[in-house]
Amino acid sequence: MANGSIYQLIEDCEATHKGLYKFYAAVMIIIVMLALPLNMSILHLFIFKLKFWKSNTNNVFLFNLVLADMLLLFSLPIKAYNYIQGERRNSNDAVCKAMLFMLFLNRGASIAFLTVTSIDRYFNVVHPGRKNLLKALKKSPHISIFIWLLLLPLTIPTMLKNFDCCNSHKSDGNQEDTLIKDVVDSLREAVFFTQIVIPFVILVYCTVHIVNRLRKKTVGDRTKLRRAVFLVTTVMVVFSLCFLPCTIARAVLLVARVQEWHESYQDKATVAFDGLMVLSYLDCLLDPLVYCLSSTKFKALYLSTYFPFLLKDGPLPMDSSTGNTTPNPKRNNVI
């Protein structure tokens, strides 16, 4: 394939490696098949068992985190279909913008609630006696509603086809409206990077201080301390695995655009970015596992509700008023 035809395919949002994009589509379908029932089952527990809106814990944040992940999953089959057809975006303008809106709103919400949950855990562990605004607000849905509303205007700049096709700051030889286009492109890219870089810095700060605090504690159950350290470290690893690679790939792609690298290098950067964006969708599967099923109590509730045969002594008795399980001191924990 000639270089000119490769460049034209990139500009037209056509897949230059159709076999590879079909593989990307298969990965997204597998993610949906695994993550959708998991997220739906956890939402069922939050609503009908835990009654999260009455809880004084961070269940409200976790509910919104899982909700954001599940809404994002509904967009992936359309994305997978486009990849199978050899298109990097939907050819219908309305569907394309709706897809970008769903993808970035719900991914942004997922990152936001993940970050807020980590901040809440930071205050509980590092500053357990200190009063803070988050501790007061988390008892009501107002902060969750505020986060969703805040993300709406931040999502609007991404609802353009040239973002989905990675065509920001492209050189088209037309000098008219160049300044306006550059401002819009820069704003759009700033939103993309801000949604990831700032939460990552916050997560690193919270994780380091939580780990240091837990390691300095000389009293308490050492097993619980090790489990807590493992959990916050795992959260950091999951975030780094899902979101940092696509952020780096996006930065490389922008450099390739601005510096007008050879078409073949731009093509490789584009394909790599699309593949790492698919990797970021794995967050929809890992979030419930890390935040929900890593809790011994929640895991016991989950197993007693959906897989009671995995419990050694049968289902855990349930407190109907709170949705919490009542432990039996004579029985062992879940498998």
Automatic annotation (TrEMBL):
State which residue ranges cross the membrane: 23-48, 60-78, 98-119, 140-160, 190-208, 229-256, 276-294
Cellular localisation: Membrane
One Pfam family from the UniProt entry?
7tm_1
PROSITE patterns attached to this UniProt entry: G_PROTEIN_RECEP_F1_1, G_PROTEIN_RECEP_F1_2
GO terms (molecular function) for this protein are:
G protein-coupled receptor activity
Q: Does the keyword RNA-binding apply?
A: no
Q: What InterPro entries does UniProt report for this protein, alphabetically?
A: GPCR_Rhodpsn (IPR000276), GPCR_Rhodpsn_7TM (IPR017452), HCARs (IPR051893)
* Name of the protein in question: G protein-coupled receptor 31
Source species of the chain: Hippocampus comes
